[in-house]
Amino acid sequence: MLQRLLIDRIENRILVGITMFVGIMILIGWVAINEGERMRSFANQFEARSIEFGAELFAANCTTCHGVDGRGIGNFGPALNSPYLFGHNYFASINNQISAINAREAQLIAEREALMQEFVNANDARREQIRARRDEIEAILTGEDGLAAERAAVFAERDNLLNSLQPAIDLGYPQPTVNEDGTVTSIYSRLAFLEWNGSLESFIYTTLVHGRPTSKTYWENAQMVSWSQQTGAPLRDDQLRNLTAYIMNWDKGNAWTIEDALAVRQYPLVPVAGGGEMVAAAPPVGTDVDAIVAQLDTVVGDPVRGEQIYNNQQRSQLGARLGCGGCHLNGVAGPAHNAKWDHFFTERSQLPQFAGYTVQKYLVESIVNTGAYIVPGYAAGQMPGDFANRMSLQDMADILAYLHTFSTVDPYVPPTPAEPSAEVTPEA
Amino acid sequence: MSILPFPSFLDDIKEKGFKRAVFEGVDDIVKSITAGMNIQDIREALRGEAPSRRPNPRLQPHSDGFWLHMRPSFFHKDMTGVYPTFRLGWLSTYFVFFETITGMFLMVWYTPSPQIAYGNMVAILSNVPLGQLMRDLHRLGAEAMVLIVTLHMIRTFMTGSYKKPRQFTWFSGVILLFATFFLSFSGYLLPWDQLALWAVTIGASMVEASPPPIVGETLNLLLRGGPDIGANGLLRFYLLHVLAVPAILFIFTGVHYYKVIIHGHSLPPQKENIGEDTAKRVPLDKRVYFIPDVLTSEIMWIGVTSFILVVLCVWFYHAPLEAHADPQVTPLGTTAPWYFLWIQGALKLGDKVLWGIIFPTVVLLIFFAWPYLDNTPSRRYADRRFALIVCFAFMSSFTVLSYMGTAEYGVNTTADQQIFYYMAHEPAHNRMGIILPVPFEQLPAGFYTTREFSAEEGMKESAIAALNEALYGTELGKQLAEQLKTEAHNPAFNLDATNIRVRPVPQAEAPRLAYVMELFEKQVAKEDKELYNGWGAVLITDNQDNLKRIDLILVWEAIELENGQPILDENGNVKPILKEDGTPVYNISIKHVFIHRDAAYFMNY
Questions:
Q1: In this predicted model, what pLDDT tens digit does every residue of B75-128 receive, in sequence order?
Q2: Which of B161, B330, B179 lies closest to B247, judged by CA?
Q3: CB A10 to CB B296 under 8 A?
Q4: Phi-psi domain of A5 (left: phi exceeds 0; alpha: psi -120 through 50; beta: other)
Q5: Which of A5, A14, A46 lies at the smallest CB-CB distance from B126?
């Protein structure tokens, strides 16, 4: 049979061919029937994978300010794993109960009024009925198992809840107010507070992409920066989506407990009035390396201020936070701050392209022209390229002085304090 | 006299009656569609009867029609069996069309942009009905096509079919072979996942090695559209994949087919006299006509092959989709596609230019030039010992080189990274770290150690107690806690290390975890030289309600190393590095993964 055409008889070939085509159609139909379920299960799995990737990113990038468990760090960042962010209203069910009691009461009182009016013109038999009904209503309103008692119980529950929430309120959870009718009003949702019209997901994603422009007026020690590659930061869009999925995964729906509210270490701060602060007028240092190095002789660097600028505790003279330490402290994402000065002498100066460089020139170039040389082991394009416009000559001198203090090859000698000038007049 | 003011079909009806007029009209239409065969002719052909009229109407589609003018009107009877063609040439053509059709469906759902491409893949899998099936068919078809085309070439070589007058047929075939390779390779990048990015990065970096440097850099820029593969590179690969290379493939498929018409199929070598080519002189009794025999056979095999592919894709094969491409993260064990592994293997032999560029180019040139170099007339196996030796030598050296191209061969990785890879690597090439498929419910929070599994039966409790003692408030405990906190961002232990508590794996509750811990222990034991006095631990913490965090920890005593290998003394023992007070220096390595309840790793296991 293998000698010719595998299947020798033409009618058998036609039969096999038709069977195969019908088989393909049946198979594809069978797959199509199950497609809905398959696509749903893939979507679930993919969402789960996305949360896993997001968890990884959160651990690496976000925990320093928002806490490992997402419950915030005092004065650094607000909780994300918080009923407030997800807008859980602890008083929703109690409000419903109170409203129901109030409505029932109003209905009964209205019925009693109507009966009383009818009473005037009613015959004796009817009057007897009305009296009976009135007593019934009285019993429901004020009796031992009546509405008043029911209300007292719900109020007690409500006050309990208010009391147990008190520690969270002290930490910044919005203060609820008790209305005249006994219900509780509170701004229980972060989005409502901000009057945000989009979804929570879009709020989180947008904040990741753009940072929080207002946060520097109230998060003194740390501010939400942009994380998106669209704005020159390190994370790709899919990574931001993963992070968003991870943060959204803290949502417990209706299952948030008081303990969750109490476990939060830091609620969002409310910005104080105003914003920004006055900054000294100083020109930006620019990108001309040789000019900067020449001018450095005219200023005295202050290593203490340099350290503060380096570690984000103080702004540059142009009002910018440089945040060098975020990547360079201990070499987390860039060459370690304490080895830079010495590495110039031990390693860089051996390279042909740095012939004729001073350590100042090397460091200045590294800061204002970040792409000029990439230290082996680190990726290109990680360091922002706009420092030339965010710092002054004095800031540069201070930072260089700070880096110099770590040197063992070329030990730092503090400058002798200048003689106080006689011409300085005390402020009048 | 016409019924209407002009001649029409109604006249036919009037003249012949309705039934006959309609039948003849349809018959004419069928005849023009088939370029010569009417309904009666088709019937006879499909019934296997001889044609009832002369000249033979079954030859007319070959001379008058477009499609069949590319096929011979009859085959030699000795050519229609499995041997000598194995149907490989026909199968290759089948896959060209199969890939074109499935590829067009996928194109509808795809945008070649790094921002969107991966999302498109996810959408194809999660939101396009039959999307997964179509992608699986396209991917499986591509891999099969590479295999089939290669086998076709080997077969042609073996039977000496490249010899005069078919040298140029072979030449055009080599072009098709490389077009197929490049089509498959360029398609690799399009999903924009880690597999895609790194497989193509390896491939494209060989281009960069072309001498002199200016040529390599320019070629690299042209191919990738930048120093690294990004938006431009993806667009270029896409256009090559869907336009440029298919165009070359289709044109040369036409050339290749035309040459087959001109020269006929070469007969099995032993059926011909040496130096003779009788393919075009087929005696009448040896003829097998294309219509109906070969045609029905081919259509049947289209059905059978497609059915096999669909069955494979429904139950046995799913095209992989790994994590989103990330140029910053190089996965361990990255390899080129399997059909380029031989180049990757050759690269491990030494110089990048010699083995990455010159060697493949020479191979390519040998392929092209072979029929012009080997001009001996005989196609018989016995007369072609040298050529067959060359062929087998090629095949075996390519197999060896391909093995050398795999990640198992000659890639030095530190023992701890290797163990972490074994335990927890991302799903790739349809494999994954062994801890990932542990069912979510069998990951109870806690701190577990391999010491429990290296201890003998009955000694487990004391092994755990000893480890607890070694950690509680000690230097090692503090180091571990500190490293967990700073490197891995997991403050599971506080810094004075007083709440580290190893506990035994709850066997009844988590048998799968216990099994994985046992395998973990075996890995650590296997590396006992490099991981001197080493032990492993798994720290499971609850991260979110449906998300566990798993920290894999390896602790060992530092020893002297040279090029990553332990230095041994004359007794074959390692040399530990000790502190001044004689206590060992500990190395701690940590890797962590997150596992979500719905990630359903275990479903793929």
A1: 888 888 888 888 899 999 999 999 999 999 999 999 999 999 999 999 999 999
A2: B179
A3: yes
A4: left
A5: A46
